[in-house]
Amino acid sequence: MRRLLYLLPLAVFGAVVAWMAVPLITGDDPRDLPSALIDRPAPDFALPGLPPADGLATADLGGEVVLVNFFASWCVPCLAEHPLLTRLAREEGIIIHAVNYKDAPEAATGWLVRHGNPYARIGADRDGRVGIEWGVSGVPETFVVDRDGRIRKRYTGPLTPAQVEAELLPLLRELGR
Amino acid sequence: MIPELGHFALILAFLLAAVQAILPLVGAQRDDPALMALGRPAAIGQFAMIAIAFLALMYAFVVSDFTVSNVVENSHSAKPMLYKVAGVWGNHEGSMVLWVLILALFGALVAVFGGNLPQRLQARALSVQAMIGVGFLAFILATSNPFLRVDPPPLDGNDLNPLLQDPGLAFHPPFLYLGYVGFSMAFSFAVAALIEGRVDAAWGRWVRPWTLAAWCALTIGIGLGSWWAYYELGWGGWWFWDPVENASFMPWLTGTALLHSAIVVEKRDALKSWTILLAIVTFGLSLLGTFLVRSGVLTSVHAFAVDPKRGVFILMLLALTIGGSLTLYAVRAPALKGGGLFAPISREGALVLNNLLLAIAAATVLTGTLYPLALEAMGGGTVSVGPPYFNAVFMPLAVPLVAAMAIGPMLAWKRGDLPGALGRLKAAALLTAIIALGTLYWQTGGPVLAFIGIALAAWAFFGALTEFADRIRLFRAPPAENWRRALGLPRSAWGLTLAHAGLGLAIAGMVGTSAWKSEVIERVGPGDTLALAGYELVFDGVERIAGPNYSAERGSVTVTRNGDTVTVLRPEKRWYPVARMPTTEAAIRTTLLSDIYVALGDGPDPTGGWVLRAWHHPLVPWLWIGIAIMALGGTVSLTDRRLRVGAPRRARGNAAGGHPQPAE
Questions:
Q1: Which whole number is the average pLDDT over B350-379?
Q2: Each residue's pLDDT tens digit, B139-180
Q3: What CA–CA distance (Å, rounded) separates B62 from B52?
Q4: Which of A76, A78, A106 is best to mutate for the B interface (most B CBs within 10 A)?
Q5: Which of B133, B164, B195 is the endpoint of a domain?
Q6: CB-based contact B386 A139, cutoff 8 Å
Q7: Which helix (H) or strand (E) holds B155?
Q8: Which is higher by pLDDT, B311 or A131?
Q9: Is the pLDDT of residue A160 over 90?
Q10: Burial class of residue A2 (count of CB atoms within 10 Å of its CB; 0-12, 13-18, 19+)
Q11: Is B601 within 8 Å of A106 when comparing Cβ atoms?
C-alpha cells in the first residue's frame, strides 16, 4: 500500500504526458472544430453595449455577412490576433462585432483605446452567459454569421494570417455573393 | 569560419557530455576512483565548449553576419548594440544554446567547488547533470542549429520583435534560465541520492545553496518579466496569468517549497522522500515550461516559432528525464529512512504546512495552464482561461500561507508553543491592526478583499521584523548588545527576515495597484487638461522623432500638482518599419509610493486630437522593491558560512568580527 503511494507521482506524470502527446503526435488541427450551431440561427441574446460602442443582440445579426469575435482584455491570445482583426476591419472592410467576455468594462475600454478598436458593435457579457449560449470554450473565438443570421463557421483560438487567407476571406466572399 | 567553429564546439560538447554521463556513473557503481574522477574535467570541458559556441553566436550577432540565417531572422544592422547582444537569446535556437550553457555552467561549478563532496555523490550528480546535457545538445544539433548559413546572404536582417527590444527584457531570459536550469542541480543531486539510496543532513546542506541560487535568479527573472509587462505590454497590468508566465511561476512555487523542506532535511533529518520528490517535480516543471514555450502548444505573446517536431522532441526529453527519475523514486524512495519525529505544532510542522500550500498552489496553476491543452486534446482549440480562474483559486491559498509565514519562524523545532509564538507577535499584530484600520479610514472605496490583502502584507512584513527584533533582543537589551547580536546572527537569519519582509512589501504593491488604481481616458488636443488623483495633466502636443531603427510620435504631458510642475512625461508610439510592428512606450513617473503612468492612444483625428490614457497606480513600486528585497534575502542567505560552496571548514571563533557563530 505504502509502495503504491510512491508510484502515484509517476502515474500522474504519465497521464499528463499522454494528454499532451495526443495533439502533437496525431497532428490533428483541432482548430478546425465543428460547432453544434453550424448552419443554425445564432442564439437569442441581447447584450448592453461597451460605451461608446452600441450593444449587440440577435437582431443586429443578419442582413450582412459579419464576424462575431469573443474577446477579453485579460486574454493574451486575443492580443495576438488583434492586429489581424484590425487589418480585416480597416483594409478588407469586414464588419466585426464583438462579445466582450467575462471582463471589467473599464479594462476592456482601456484595452481597446490602447490597441485600437476594430469592432462595429460590442456586447458586454460580464458573467459569460452569452458565451455559454454560443458554446465558446474560452477566448478568443470567432464565428462567421451569414446574411440570414445563421452561424456558418467557428474558429477557436486566435485567427492566423494563413487561416484568414486560405479559408476565411474565400468563405466571406462566397457568402457575400 | 567562426560560426562553423561554434558548430564544431557544440558537437564536441555533446561528445564530452556523453562521456560525462556514462563513465563516472559506471565508476561509482564499480567503485573505480579513476573513472569517477573523469566527471570533473569532462564537466569543465563541456562548459568550455558550449561557451565557445555561445561566444561564436554572439560574435555573429555583434558584427551582423547576415550569412547566418539566425542572425538574418532576428537582427538588423541598425539595431542598438544592447539588443544585438540580447538578440542572441531573443530567438528559439540562441535561447536553447543559453539554456545548455547555464546547465553546463552549473555542472562545472560542482566540478570546481565540489571538492569536499563525497566522491561517489559528486560523480553520480555530474553524470545525471550530463545526461540532461546530452538530451538538450542533441535537441539543438538535430532540430535547432543556430549556425545554419544562408546563401546568398540578404542585405540586411528582419529585426528582432520590437516588443523584445527593451532593457528589462534583454536581461529577463538569462535570469529566468539561471533559475530554471539551476534547479537541475537539485534534481541531479536528488537522482544521485536515489541511486545511492541514502539521503542525510549533509545531502540537505549540499542541495540547499544550489536551490537557493536558482531561486534567487528565478525571482529576479520573474520580477524583470513582470516589470516589463507593466511598462511595455499592458495598461499597467503586471501579471497576466499567461501560460509562459505560469511556466516560470510553477517552478518558483515548488522551488520555494523545496527551499524550505531542504532546511528540515538538513536540520532535522526528516521529510527526505518528500524533498527528493520536490526536487524532481521542480525541475520537471522547469522542463515543462521549456516545452510549453518551445512547442507552441499554448498561444502566448511570448512564444517563439511554432514547430511540432521540436515539441515532440522536448516532450520525449521530458518523459525520459522525469519519467525515469520518478520510476527510480517509486523504487527507491520507500526505503529511505525517515529521521526525527515532530509534533504538528513545531517549526517542522509549519514548514510542512508551507510545503503543502505551495504544492497545492503549484497544482492549481498547473491545472489552469494545462486545461486549455486538455481542451485541445479533446478538440477544443487554443483558448485562455485567464485571471477569473486563477484569482478565484489562488487567493484562498495565499491567505493562509502568508498568515502562517509570520508564525512559523517563531516556533521551536520538534515541539512549538503556539500561544507563546503568538504572544511574541503581539507588536506585529498591533501594527497590522493600525495599518488595516488606517487603510479603512483613508480609503473609503475599494473591495473588502483589499483590506484583507493590506492586513496580510503588514502582518508578513511586521512579523518578519518582529522575529528579527526578537533575535537581537531589541528594546530588551542596550543598543550595543542589539548591534553585536545582529552582526553575530547567521546570514541565513538575515536572509529569512529580508525575504519574508520583501514578500510583505510585494503583496502590498499587488493589492494597492489592483484595488485603488485610478485612470482617466480622454480625447485631448494641445492645451487640454486632465485631472488624475490630485494631479493635473496638461497635454502639450505630439512631435515626430526618429530612433535608430524606428520612427515615433512622442507626446508631451506636463504633470502639475497644486500649480507646481512635477515632471514632464513623454509617452511614445513607435513604428518599427523592418518588423512592421507598432509598439507603445508608456511614460512613468514614480514617487516610490505610487506611479503616474501615461500612454498615447489613437491619433491624430481630423481635428488634431489624440486619445490620452493616464493611470495612477498606488503602491506599485513596492511590488518591484519587494521582489528585489526577496532576491537580496536569498543572496544574503547564500553567503551563510554553513552553505558557502567549497569553503574549507574554518576553526570556530574565526568568523567575521571574531565572534563565535551562535547556534541556530
A1: 80
A2: 999 888 899 888 788 888 877 767 677 777 788 888 988 998
A3: 15
A4: A76
A5: B164
A6: yes
A7: none
A8: A131
A9: no
A10: exposed
A11: no
B521/A110 CB distance under 8 A: yes
**CB contact at 8 A, B160 and B74:** yes
In angstroms, the separation between the Cα of residue A24 and the nearest Cα of chain B is 6
Q: Within a domain: residue B450?
A: no
Among the partner residues A10, A25, A79, nearest to B326 by beta-carbon distance: A10
Evaluate whether residue A8 is within a structural domain.
no
* Residue A67 covered by a domain: yes
CB contacts, 8 Å: A9 with chain B: 277, 280-281, 326, 329-330
Are residues B334 and A3, on separate chains, in Cβ contact within 8 Å? yes
- Domain enclosing residue A135, as ranges: 31-176
Query: Using 50, 70 and 90 to split pLDDT, how confident is the model at A101?
Result: confident
Reported as a single tens digit per residue, the pLDDT across B219-246 is 999 998 888 888 776 566 788 777 778 8
Contact B387 A109 (CB under 8 A): no
Would the CB atoms of A17 and B315 count as touching at under 8 Å?
yes
Examine residue A5 and state whether it is found in any structural domain, yes or no.
no
Interchain contact A79–B (C-beta under 8 A): yes
**Residue B26 domain-assigned (yes or no):** yes
pTM listed for this prediction:
0.81
Average pLDDT over every residue of B375-389 = 57
Instruction: Say if CB B358 and CB B257 are below 8 A apart.
Output: yes
Domain total of chain A: 1
Q: Which of A19, A76, A113 sits opposite B384 (nearest CB)?
A: A76
* Residue B14, domain extent: 1-164
Residue type, B5: L
In a domain, B19, yes or no: yes
Instruction: Provide the greatest CA pair distance for chain A.
Output: 69
- A·B CB contacts under 8 A: 143
Kindly report the CA angle at A147 between A144 and A153, in degrees rounded to 5?
20
Residue A113 sits at the chain B interface (C-beta within 8 Å): yes
Is A17–B519 a contact, with Cβ atoms under 8 angstroms apart?
no
- Tell me if A110 and B318 make a contact (CB, 8 A cut-off): no
Which residue in B143, B161, B246, B326 has the most chain A C-beta atoms within 10 A of its own C-beta, making it the best mutation to test that interface?
Answer: B326
Q: What total number of domains does chain B contain?
A: 2
Residue B204 falls within a domain, yes or no? no
Q: Do A7 and B601 touch (CB under 8 A)?
A: no
Cα three-residue angle B406-B412-B414, rounded to 5 degrees: 125
Residue B384 contacts residue A77 (beta carbons within 8 Å): yes
The radius of gyration of chain B from alpha carbons, rounded to an integer in Å, stands at 27
CA angle B407, B409, B411 (to 5 degrees): 75
Closest in A23, A74, A137 to B386, CB measured? A74
- How sure is the predictor about B35, in pLDDT bands with cuts at 50, 70 and 90? very high
Q: Which helix (H) or strand (E) holds A117?
A: none
Percent of residues, chain B, with pLDDT higher than 70:
89
A63 in a domain, yes or no?
Answer: yes
For B71-120, the pLDDT digits (tens) are 888 888 888 888 888 888 877 888 889 999 999 999 999 999 887 888 89
ipTM of the complex: 0.73
* Nearest alpha carbon to residue B240 among B359, B377, B385: B385
Helix (H, G, I), strand (E, B) or coil at B523: strand
Grid cell digits, residue A7: 508510484
Residue of chain B whose Cα is closest to the Cα of A139: B383
Q: Closest residue of B to A22, CA-based? A: B377
The answer to whether the CB of B660 falls within 8 A of the CB of B652 is: yes
**B478-530 residue pLDDT tens:** 888 888 888 888 888 899 999 999 999 999 998 888 888 888 888 888 888 88
Among the residue ranges A104-113, B344-353, B373-382, the one predicted with the least confidence is: B373-382
